[in-house]
Hints:
single chain; alpha+beta; Cytochrome Bc1 Complex, Chain A, domain 1; 7 helices
Amino acid sequence: xxxxxxxxxxxxxxxxxxxxxxxxxxxxxxxxxxxxxxxxxxxxxxxxxxxxxxxxxxxxxxxxxxxxxxxxxxxxxxxxxxxxxxxxxxxxxxxxxxxxxxxxxxxxxxxxxxxxxxxxxxxxxxxxxxxxxxxxxxxxxxxxxxxxxxxxxxxxxxxxxxxxxxxxxxxxxxxxxxxxxxxxxxxxxxxxxxxxxxxxxxx
Length: 203
């Protein structure tokens, strides 16, 4: 019988530093629009919080998301807006991002931080959760139809110490994510005193 236990990771990631203080980072480029990113310290591949943060990312990224409807459609402040959760062997990041007019960057920053606060204090709605889980699971089922990609993902999961069968278990784990788990993850990671705001704007 094959041994289905996860392999040991190929290396042990270093212990992360404590959360950075809230601070801005600015740069200029020969562009017409400004790109704003609000980043928070994220989690690792083997953390249970990763699934809740993935759901949170999906809820903030599609064309029907609260960020899109509020910041782009209602206020007209951005060309595009979304979120990204990147989990690694060492803790990754969770970030909100947007492209906007330079003169509107400060207002967009205020709105994004306000949305982060709402996610911490109120969490998602049941409809947001349902839609996000359905989209994530659907995308993963489609991705598994490509045998080359599936082979690569399976090999990497084994090397990372997650076990080669992890991808087959993902659907059920995402489906089991609750509103309470997503809200708890938002409170744990979207910390207002541990955020880096980065903006690249025209010279």
